[in-house]
Amino acid sequence: MSSAGSGTDLDQVILPAIPPAHLNSGRIAALQVADRLRRGSQIVGRFETSALLGFKVSAQGRALRVHMSLSVDDLSVSGWHTGNTEPQSTLPRLIQIRSQGRLRQCVLLKGRRSHARVAFDLAPEEIPDDGLICVEALDIREGDGISSELRDAVSDRVAPDGVAGVRLDKVVLEEPPAVDFDPDTLDAGRCEFYTLISSGGLVNLNRRGVRPLRTGMFVLNPVMRDRFGSAGRITFTLATRAEAPAMIPATWRRLNSELRWLRHAGKKLVRSAAPSVECVLSIRDGDLGEPEQTARGNVTELVLPSADRSPLLVMVARSQGVLPILESGRSHD
Q: How far apart are CA 31 and CA 52, in angstroms?
C-alpha cells in the first residue's frame, strides 16, 4: 500500500459528471449529497420532505445549464417513506427550487399524474473549485427570502409539506447553447414546457394548446438569458369556459349543469365572462400592486414584467362553475 499525504490506495476516487450528462439514477457516484432524498435506481430519487442534493460536476470554469424533471404519483404523500400512503390534501403543491443558495424557479403541481420541468443557468463564478452543485427543493413556507405577504396569500390554497413524496426523475447538466431562438408568442402548453410558467403541471409533456387553471393560480418564472420571456414584458391571454359537469358536485350536476353552461354563454354574449386577476405577488417582494389587465368579451390580457429578480405568482379570481383558461403568452418590449 502506498500513500500520498492523507490519501491511500484504498481511498475512493469520485468521478464527476462531465457535461453533457443525463442523470436518471440516484446510484451514480457524482451524486455526493442526498439529504432527505431517497435514491432511486430508475429515477434520481424521491423527496421525503424539503431536501437538498449535491452533484460533483466537472465544469472546468464554464457556465452550466441545469434541467430537472419532477413528477407526482400515488406515493407522493407525507410520510410515504415510513409506510404511510393514505391520500392527503388535494390542494396543489407550490415548491421552490434553489441552487447554490439562490431561488431559481418555482413549480406548481396539481393532481397525481402531473409533471413539471425546471431549467436555470449557473454562471462560472457560482460553481466552486470542487465542482459541487447543490440543489434544494423547498416547500413555499420554508427558507429565507420569501415574502410574508406571499405566504399569507397561499396559506389556504396550497398543500402543506408540498415537497413530500415528489419524484426527481431526471437531471440534465449541459453547457448553455450559444444562441437560443424562440418565437414572440407561445401557447400556454409550450410556456409551461419551457418553464416560463407553472400552472399545475403537465399530464402529457408533449401537450400543446391552452392550460386550464384549476388551481386558480400560475407562476411566472425567471428563464435563461435570451430565452422567451427573459426581457421586456409578457402579455398573457386568459379566457374562461363553463366548468364541465363532471367537475361539479353531484347535487349541482343533476340540477344545474345545463343552466351553468347557458349562463356562461349568456355572459359571453354580454361581454362579462372575462376572468379577473386578483393580484400578482413576487415570491420575494410580495404584492406588486394593481395588475395591468384589460378585459374584452371573454378574454383578459394581463401584462407582466419579466420575472428577472424573482418568480411571480398570479392569482385569478374564483367564480363558481367557471374555469379560467390560460391561452398564450406574447413577449415584447
A: 11
pLDDT at 2 exceeding the cut of 90: no
Other CB atoms within 10 Å distance of the CB of residue 42: 9
| Residue 50 pLDDT exceeds 80 | yes
For the chain, the first-to-last Cα distance in angstroms comes to: 66
pLDDT of residue 184: 84
How far apart are the C-alpha atoms of 138 and 101, rounded to whole Å?
Answer: 12
Q: Please list, in sequence order, all residues whose beta carbon lies within 8 angstroms of the beta carbon of residue 177, skipping any fewer than 6 positions away.
A: none
Q: At 203, list the grid cell.
A: 399530464
Radius of gyration of the CA atoms of the chain, in A: 22
- CB–CB of 218/314 below 8 Å? yes
Which amino acid appears at position 14 of this protein? I
Residue 169 CB coordination number (10 Å): 18
Mean pLDDT taken over the chain: 88
More confident residue, 181 or 319: 319
- Is the pTM higher than 0.90? The answer reads no
In angstroms, rounded to a whole number, what is the distance separating the alpha carbons of residues 217 and 197?
Answer: 10
Name the pairing type of β-strands 211-212 and 299-305. Answer: unpaired
Say which residue the cell 418553464 belongs to.
195
pLDDT digits (tens, 9 = 90+) for 252-301: 554 555 555 455 455 443 345 799 999 999 999 999 999 999 998 889 99
